[in-house]
UniProtKB/TrEMBL annotation:
Keywords for this protein: ATP-binding, Nucleotide-binding, Transport
One GO BP: L-isoleucine import across plasma membrane
Protein name according to UniProt: ABC transporter ATP-binding protein
GO cellular component, one term: plasma membrane
Pfam families (alphabetical): ABC_tran, BCA_ABC_TP_C
DNA-binding as UniProt keyword: no
Region annotated Disordered, chain positions: 267-294
Biased composition (Basic and acidic residues): 284-294
Superkingdom as given in the UniProt entry: Bacteria
Domain ABC transporter, chain residue ranges per copy: 7-253
Length: 294
C-alpha cells in the first residue's frame, strides 16, 4: 500500500452560481514531491489553490494534510502546515523585507496578547528568534543583502522571492506557488527553479502553477493537467507531454518538439541559464478565443 500523501484533495468541486469551476478534482502530493499544475486560462487552477488553502469552501469534497481533513479557514490551514504565494504579489509594500518575512513567522509564535502587551522575556525571546529565522530565510532565497529595503522598492523578481520567504517562515509541510516566475527574465526564472529544488531538499513538498511548460516539465516529478475544471491527465512529465489529449487541449505541438525544448532548456540551465525562456502563445479556438497556455 502506498504511503499517506502529505496533501490529498478528494473529489473537490467548486460551483460559483451557475459556473462549475472545478468538478471532482483529486490530487495526491507525496512527501518530497514537486507537482506541477498546468492548464489553459480559466481551467480552475487558482480556484483549486483557493480550495486547498481554505480560502474557498469546496462545494463537495475535502482536503487532507497527512490524513487529517483541513478546515476551510486560511489562518488555520497555514498553522496546520500549508503555505502559499499568490499570482498577484501580496506583500506589505511599506514594510521592509525582514518585516514582511517576520509577519509570516508570527503565525508560528505562541505568545498570547498579554505577553505582547507587556513585552515580557518570553515575548522578547520569541521576537529575537523570529528575527533570526527570518534573516536565515532571506539568505536562503537569495535576498540576504536587502533586509532593510522596503518591499515596494525591490525589483519584481525579488518581490516574488520575498513572498516565498514569507511563506516559508510559517514552517510549512507543503508550499503552493501560484505562477512564481510570472514576469521574470530567464535568469530569474532559472534561479527560481533552483530555489524550488532547494526548498524540496529541506523536506517541503511543493505544488506549482505555471504557464511556462518548459519550466514545469524540467522541474516537476508529477504533473496534473486541468482543463475546464476537470483533471484531464496526470503523471510524470514524460507521460503528460506525450498524451494526445494534452497536446490537443494545451500544448499544441508534438511531444518530440516539446521534449527537445525541455532538453535544450535543461542543458542551457546547466550552462548558466537559458538564453530565452519563452512562454508559449495561447492556442485559439476557431472563434479566436484563447484556449491554450499563455
Ligand atoms: N470568486 C469567483 N466567483 C465566480 N467565478 C469565479 C471566481 N473565481 C474564479 N471564478 C471562475 O472560475 C473559473 C476558473 O478560474 P481560475 O482563476 O481558477 O482559473 P485559472 O486556471 O487559475 O486561470 P488563469 O490561468 O487565467 O489564472 C473561471 O471561469 C473564473 O472566471
Amino acid at each position: 500500500m502506498s504511503a499517506t500523501p502529505v496533501l490529498a484533495a478528494n473529489s473537490v468541486s467548486m460551483v460559483f452560481g451557475g459556473l462549475t469551476a472545478l468538478s471532482n478534482v483529486s490530487l495526491r502530493l507525496q512527501e518530497g514531491q514537486i507537482l506541477g499544475l498546468i492548464g489553459p486560462n480559466g481551467a480552475g487552477k487558482t480556484t483549486f489553490f483557493n480550495c486547498l488553502t481554505g480560502l474557498y469552501s469546496p462545494t463537495t469534497g475535502n482536503v487532507q494534510l497527512r490524513g487529517q481533513v483541513l478546515p476551510t479557514d486560511p489562518a488555520a490551514v497555514t498553522v496546520a502546515g500549508v503555505a502559499r504565494t499568490f499570482q498577484n504579489i501580496r506583500l506589505f509594500p511599506s514594510m521592509t523585507s525582514l518585516e514582511n518575512v517576520m509577519v509570516g513567522r508570527h503565525s508560528r509564535m505562541k505568545q498570547g496578547p498579554l505577553a505582547s502587551l507587556f513585552h515580557g522575556p518570553a515575548y522578547l525571546k520569541g521576537e529575537r528568534d523570529a528575527r533570526d529565522r527570518s534573516r536565515e530565510l532571506l539568505e536562503f532565497v537569495g535576498l540576504g543583502t536587502v533586509h532593510d529595503e522596503l518591499a515596494r522598492n525591490l525589483p519584481y523578481g525579488d518581490q516574488r522571492r520575498l513572498e516565498i520567504a514569507r511563506a516559508l517562515a510559517t514552517d510549512p509541510k507543503v508550499l503552493l506557488l501560484d505562477e512564481p516566475t510570472a514576469g521574470m527574465n530567464p535568469q530569474e526564472t532559472e534561479a527560481t527553479r533552483q530555489l524550488i529544488f532547494a526548498i524540496r531538499e529541506t523536506g517541503v513538498a511543493v505544488v506549482v502553477i505555471e504557464h511556462d511548460t518548459k519550466f514545469i516539465f524540467s522541474l516537476c516529478d508529477h504533473v496534473s493537467v486541468l482543463v475546464q475544471g476537470q483533471l484531464l491527465v496526470e503523471g510524470t512529465p514524460d507521460v503528460v507531454r506525450a498524451d494526445p489529449r494534452v497536446i490537443e487541449a494545451y500544448l499544441g505541438k508534438p511531444p518530440d518538439e516539446v521534449e527537445a525544448e525541455v532538453r535544450q532548456y535543461a542543458e542551457e540551465a546547466a550552462h548558466g541559464g537559458p538564453e530565452s525562456t519563452q512562454v508559449m502563445q495561447p492556442i485559439r479556438d476557431q472563434d479566436g478565443h484563447e484556449g491554450g497556455n499563455r
